[in-house]
Amino acid sequence: MGSQEKYVTKQIQERFRQLAKEARDLYLTTVVPTLDHVPSPLEFHRDWVCPNKPVIIQGAISHWPALHRWTDEYLRKILGDKELTVAVTPNGYADAVVGNKFVMPEERTMSFTEFLDTLDQKTDSQGVFYIQKQNSNLTEEFHKLIPDADVQLKFATEAFGRLPDASNFWMGDKRAVTSMHKDHYENLYCVVRGQKTFTLLPPTDQPFVPYGNYQAACFKKNDTGTFDIVDDHSTGEVPWIPLDPTNPNLDKFPQFANARPIQVTVNAGETLYLPSLWFHHVQQSHRCIAVNFWYDMEFDIKYSYYKFVESLVEVADKG
After folding, report:
1. Comparing C-alpha atoms, which of 245, 253, 255 is closest to residue 281?
2. Beta-bridge partners for 289
3. Phi and psi at residue 218, in whole multiples of 5°?
C-alpha cells in the first residue's frame, strides 16, 4: 500500500471514530432508559423509533394472563405431547462462528414434555436445548398459548402502520446464547418469565464490529453422543461476527476497543424495544420464557446512510 492509500485509510478510520463519538454526545445514552408507562403510538414513534433508540417499556404486557399462567405445570397441561422444533447444540451457541465455520444448531422434533424434562435433566440427552424457531412459531407451533398473550402490541402496530411480520416464542437453557448480530426488523422483546440480558451496540459502532465470511455448517449428533460439524454446501458462505462483546479478543480485533457496548437486563413483565440495525448479543436465565414481535423496518434514508458507512468500512478494510 502506498503512502496516499495509507493516509486515506487512516482518515476514514478517524471519521468513523468521530461518527461514533458524535452519536454518543448528541443522542445516545450509556444506559437503556425505562418508561414507567405504555407510550402512545405517537410518543413511541417520535421519541424512540425515529431516533433509533432502545427503551425498556413497563406495563406493555401487564394484561397478559401468561405472566401468571405460564408455569411448567400449566405448559405441560396445554402443550404436553405437542410436537415442537427444538434447536440443539453442544455448547449453547447456535448460529455462531466456531473455528472457521458458521455453525447452525441441529433441529430436533420432540414433545414439549420431553423438552421440559431435558431442561430438568430428567433425561440423558446431551447438549443445550432451546426453542428459538423464528418463523412466527407463536402463531404456528404454539397457537394454543395465544389466549394467554397477544400476537401483536397494539401501540407498536399503530405506530408502524402494519402487523408484525412474525411473533415468536422463546424458551430454553441458561447456557443458550445468541451470538452478536443485527436484524432488519424493529423488535419488541417481551420477557414473560425469568430475565434476558442484552449487550447492545448502536449502528454507529458498525465500523468497529468485525465481520468475516464463513462456510455454513450444522451440528449433528453422532453415534457416540457427541456432536460433529457438517458443512452445509447448499447455504454456502455466511457473513457473521466472530466476536463475543462480553469478552472481546482485542488482540485479534483491536478496532473493537472503540465500541461502547451497552448492557441491559429485561425482567419478567418488561418489554425491550430493540431498534433495527442495532447489534445485539443475548444471554438468559434458566427456563426463561419470552415472546417477541418483529416489525419490518423502513428502508429509508437511515438505511441508506447505514449501507454507505458499511461500504466505507469495506474500503478501509481493503486499505
Report:
1. 245
2. 171, 193
3. -135, 145
Number of Cβ within 10 Å of residue 271's Cβ equals 26
Contact present, 60 and 81 (Cβ < 8 Å):
no
Of 55, 104, 115, residue with least CA distance to 80: 115
155-179 residue pLDDT tens: 999 999 999 999 999 999 999 999 9
Predicted local distance difference test score (pLDDT) of residue 319: 66
∠ CA 134-137-139 to the nearest 5 degrees? 140
Across the range 56-74, mean pLDDT stands at: 98
Q: Closest Cα partner for 67 from 196, 191, 174?
A: 191
Q: How far apart are CA 113 and CA 125, in angstroms?
A: 14
pLDDT score of 111:
96
- Residues 129/90, Cβ–Cβ less than 8 Å: no
The C-alpha cell of 170 is what?
422463546
DSSP H helical ranges for the chain: 3-26, 41-44, 66-69, 72-79, 112-119, 154-160, 301-318
Average pLDDT over residues 4-28: 93
Residue type, 171: M
Set of cell numbers at residue 284: 438468559
Phi, psi of 33 (to 5 degrees): -70, 160
Q: What is the mean pLDDT of residues 108-131?
A: 91
Rounded to whole angstroms, how far apart are CA atoms 284 and 83? 24
pLDDT of 298 above 70 = yes
Q: Which three cell numbers stand for residue 90?
A: 453442544
Distances (CA, A) of 120 to 36, 112, 128, 288, 298: 35, 12, 12, 13, 42
Place of cell 402502520: 161
Q: What is the pLDDT of residue 185?
A: 97
Rounded to an integer, what distance in angstroms lies between the CA atom of residue 159 and that of residue 135? Answer: 23
Going 146 to 151 to 154 to 155, the CA torsion angle's sign is positive
